[in-house]
Design brief:
mainly alpha, Rossmann fold, Arc Repressor Mutant, subunit A, four-stranded mixed sheet, single chain, five-stranded parallel sheet
Length: 975
């Protein structure tokens, strides 16, 4: 009988395939003998190891008893030698098999036989069950062997990962690889493989972040720098070395809702709409409520993802009422990163993108949609609009696609006719089987199927509502509740929900228990997706949490609410046609419900964003709630809840800034600040107003807001908020060129917060000291403050601010000619920006990296970084100067394009002179040096050349930079 000894985990002994129970002493003696199979263990050594604290007087007798019983279990297990005992040579040991396959894996990898390597690795690792020699884990004499085996296991894992990377399985290995690096942070080979896997998965920034994480850990733990191999890999990633292998394309950009049901009956429409989108800038899906316009638009978005490199963005307009609401919804969905002064301005900016914008439910805000689409169609660019509406937008060039009801049986069915004969019937069966998997049409008379189809009139939403009741009602009973409409449905007209859909919704409501119906009517107050606690707070219904949850589940089962799950976050929504019927039906307590809704969301929004200094808040909840928050803000202003609105807006400012909705924040704040406010809420609102105005470049407005806020908070002895406003005012002084004033304010703030333990507050104050010193012309003095700021932001995991501060370290290092610091800080900024997930911060990091690459790397790399930044930076914003045009000038200096360098210098100088922002002194000096060099290189215009329009200048510069990205050799003749 075969005997197997398993040592790679808790010891197990099997004889003839059957496990054998062993006593602890027997397990220990067997483990000691198996430490070195094939060699005898002298009795004295065996005795000493069995009883490390000292053997008993009967040790030898006890040892003989243990061995005798083990031999009784398996006679060939232990062999007697001249001096002691050893494991029998015929015993199968998992450790031996593991080592054989590990050697085979390494040999196969050496020969680049990656498939064989993977097979050997998988076989070897399948033998591993836990800590080897678990019975001896606390014994010093076993430590070296346990360590050796664990090291061999890790080396084998690395071979397997390397093999899978070679087989283009980068994305597949990432989860396990990331877990391994987290567990073994000092193991450089694992980190090397993780960086490579991330890079090949299209995640370059994250790969660079891993390098810096490894560098920090090695320095803190061991006082070492990364190995040459890691340093070389970082450089090759930065340069996109083709020898690193193919880089997977990044995931398609979109925010399309996930689809949880099958798509039936509209394939011809899908093909037709997709075809129209290929040749027309504006396509409108027309049709009445419930016909499936929204679903078709989402399917078309998925079907055309590969056509739109700048993304497919779905904009739900169901919760909008004004032009501002529409602009905010579009800007949020399309991730707009610029100031918006009007719908026309928004359309002009977005039209530059090669993207698809899906505007869903335009009919109730038709005029703002018409304005937006008109300007988008007239703009220069590649943006395409797919609108869904009950009426045409009325825009030149608009292509209409009229959505008809699903085809139903054209005549009463005979019992012998095939039952599934139309898309309408197919959809009914599919949805019915999702409720009752045993449902079949064969169990129902064909005539009743025809009658139900006729009454439902091919309206998909009505069909889905009816199908939800098949588990409780017969088809005849369902049909009897539907009142067929005799009114004609004119495609494209505004259709009131009073046809078969209205009837289906009405009887669905009638079938509900009274309390459930009341709950659904209250849910009509929500304009966007809401959570169970939201519904419970607003409903005012006196039920336990369990009863309330059960009622919500019943409404979902009846298809009167939809549910969307993202991990543990579950949100509900009322479809637009159903909400229309609910609002028309009305509720006796509608006023109280609206007030409860507004109060709940004003409080919720305020609570989720309250923080003076840190910037690590989770914005997703606010993002999901934003439609209802806007409704609550409007209600609050209408009903003179001015203080509550001001408090909420001040706390929402962080959300608006991170989502590039500064302009929306300003519009709300301007409105509330016109009202009568208590001092404290007024101070909150002024601080938020100043922050947004500063970002938008309105420095005078920002300074006035901060100064008034400081006065209010000082009068109320609120030193904490006064100090925070003082920091922000320091930034305004810096932007305006009032650097001494900015330094004074920043140093006052620093003294105020340095006595406390708020690290983020210290970092912000330190940053403003450094910024003012740098802009004043003292970059060497600025560096310690900027570096302190960046280090603290990394320490507090505020990666957006860490990226911003690190980028400023790189710029200051550029002006002090510190190559190593500039390159290191730029790379750190890139990695932090990737973790922050903010495109605005990303552009800052790209500009810093391009500046460093242009100066100490190569112009091709710098050009590639700037081409990426170009798509994210809007015209007229300060970012255009400091993160695009000036790094471009440094790039073009290296490539010898002196005429363009001169144009940039003159264009930037002219632009800065017309804004409220002052040019930092170090850049004034650098541009003067470039201007001198242009004359030395024979550019005849010099200081007398006319300054070019910044927009035209940027376009010409980008043409040259794109040409540079195609050059594969470094040189100075590219200009």
């Amino acid at each position: 009988m075969a005997t197997t000894l398993l040592l790679l985990g808790p010891l197990e002994l099997t004889v003839g395939g059957e496990p054998t129970a062993l006593r602890p002493a027997q397990r220990r003696v067997l483990s000691i003998l198996a430490l070195d199979p094939g060699r005898d263990v002298p009795i004295d050594v065996l005795t000493e190891r069995m009883w490390p604290s000292g053997p008993p007087a009967t040790a030898r007798t006890a040892l003989h008893v243990h061995i005798s019983k083990l031999r009784g279990t398996a006679p060939d297990l232990i062999v007697t030698t001249d001096s002691g005992y050893e494991i029998g040579s015929e015993i199968h040991i998992d450790r031996t098999v593991f080592e054989e396959h590990a050697r085979e894996a390494a040999a196969s990898a050496q020969e680049s036989d990656w498939d064989a390597a993977v097979r050997s690795v998988d076989t070897a690792l399948s033998l591993w069950r836990g800590t080897p020699f678990a019975e001896l884990a606390d014994d010093d004499f076993a430590a070296s062997e346990i360590t050796r085996l664990d090291e061999l296991r890790l080396a084998t894992i690395e071979v397997g990962i390397e093999a899978r990377l070679a087989l283009d399985q980068s994305r597949e290995v990432l989860p396990n690889l990331q877990a391994m690096v987290s567990r073994y942070p000092l193991r450089e080979r694992l980190r090397y493989l993780l960086m490579l896997a991330l890079y090949r998965s299209g995640r370059q920034a994250e790969a660079l972040r891993e390098y810096h994480a490894g560098r920090r850990i090695l320095g803190e733990e061991l006082g070492l720098e990364p190995s040459p191999a890691l340093r070389d890999l970082e450089e090759r990633i930065l340069l996109h070395d083709p020898d690193l292998g193919a880089v997977a394309p990044p995931p398609a950009l979109h925010n399309l809702p996930a689809l949880t049901t099958s798509f039936l009956g509209r394939n011809d429409d899908l093909v037709g709409v997709s075809t129209e989108l290929a040749s027309h800038r504006i396509v409108t899906l027309l049709g009445g409520p419930g016909l499936g316009k929204t679903r078709l638009s989402i399917e078309a978005g998925y079907a055309t993802l590969d056509r739109f490199p700048d993304g497919v963005w779905f904009v739900s307009l169901s919760g909008t009422a004004t032009a501002l609401d529409v602009a905010a919804a579009i800007a949020t969905a399309a991730r707009a990163q610029f100031e918006v002064t009007s719908l026309a301005d928004l359309a002009d900016q977005l039209s530059r993108q090669h993207a698809l914008l899906i505007l869903d439910n335009c009919e109730h805000v038709i005029e703002p949609c018409r304005v937006f689409a008109s300007f988008a169609a007239g703009g220069v660019g590649n943006m395409t609009i797919l609108a869904t509406s009950r009426r045409p937008l009325g825009v030149d060039g608009e292509r209409l696609w009229r959505l008809q009801p699903l085809a139903s049986p054209s005549a009463p069915l005979n019992e012998t006719d095939p039952l599934i004969v139309s898309p309408a019937v197919q959809l009914f069966v599919d949805r019915a089987q999702s409720v009752d998997r045993t449902f079949t049409l064969a169990a129902h008379p064909a005539a009743s199927v025809y009658e139900l189809s006729r009454r439902l009139e091919g309206v998909p939403l009505a069909i889905e509502l009816a199908a939800r009741w098949v588990s409780a009602l017969s088809i005849e009973e369902i049909a009897s509740m539907i009142v067929p409409s005799e009114a004609s449905r004119e495609a494209g007209a505004a259709v009131v929900v009073d046809d078969s859909l209205g009837s289906a919704i009405s009887w669905s409501l009638d079938l509900l228990a009274r309390d459930d119906r009341d709950l659904l009517l209250r849910a009509a107050a929500f304009t966007g997706p809401f959570t169970l606690p939201d519904a419970h707070a607003v409903s005012g219904v006196d039920r336990t949490r369990a009863q309330f949850s059960a009622a919500m589940a019943r409404l979902v089962d009846a298809s009167l609410l939809t549910v969307d799950r993202h991990g543990t976050d579950i949100r509900y929504k009322t479809l637009a046609p159903i909400r229309e019927v609910l609002l028309l039906t009305g509720h006796d307590e509608a006023g109280a419900i609206a007030a409860a809704h507004a109060g709940h969301f004003l409080e919720k929004a305020g609570q989720s964003q309250e923080d003076l200094y840190t910037a690590t808040l989770d914005l997703e909840t606010t993002h999901h709630d934003i439609s209802d928050i806007r409704t609550a803000l409007e209600y609050g202003l209408t009903h003179e809840w001015n203080d509550d609105v001001a408090r909420t807006l001040s706390r929402l400012s962080y959300y608006f800034h991170q989502r590039y909705l500064h302009w929306e924040s300003q519009a709300w704040l301007d409105r509330v600040l016109e009202r009568e406010l208590s001092p404290e809420p007024r101070g909150y609102a002024l601080r938020a107003l100043g922050s947004g105005a500063q970002i938008l470049g309105h420095q005078s407005k920002a300074a006035k807001a901060f100064e008034e806020a400081i006065s209010i908070f000082t009068a109320r002895n609120d030193d904490n908020r006064a100090t925070r406003c003082l920091m922000s005012l320091s930034g305004v002084h810096s932007d305006r060129g009032e650097w001494d004033l900015g330094l004074e304010a920043a140093r006052r703030a620093y003294r105020s917060v340095s006595a406390g333990d708020n690290r983020s507050a210290i970092a912000i104050a330190s940053y403003y000291i450094g910024e003012n010193l740098y802009r004043r012309g003292d970059p060497s003095e600025a560096l310690p403050y900027l570096r302190e700021s960046a280090e603290i932001f990394h320490e507090t995991a505020e990666y957006g601010r860490a990226a911003y501060a690190s980028g400023h370290v790189a710029r200051a290092a550029f002006h002090t000619y510190d190559e190593m610091l500039a390159l290191d800080a730029a790379t750190t900024a890139t990695a932090a920006a990737a973790r922050a997930g903010s495109d605005y911060v990303r552009t800052k990091a790209l500009g810093a990296s391009a500046l460093a690459a242009a100066t100490w790397g190569d112009p091709q790399t710098a050009a590639r970084l700037l081409v990426e930044a170009d798509g994210k930076i809007i015209p007229g914003h300060p970012d255009e100067v400091y993160d695009l045009l000036l790094p471009a000038a440094a790039t073009l200096v290296r490539s010898g394009a002196w005429d363009l360098v001169e144009d940039i210098v003159l264009g930037v100088r002219d632009h800065v002179d017309t804004t409220e922002s002052a040019m930092p002194a170090p850049w004034v000096e650098t541009m003067a040096e470039w201007e001198t060099e242009t004359i030395a290189h024979g550019v005849t215009g010099g200081a007398g050349s006319p300054a070019r329009d910044l927009g035209a200048l940027r376009a010409g510069v980008m043409v040259q930079l794109r040409l540079l990205t195609t050059i594969t050799t470094t040189g100075t003749g590219a200009g």
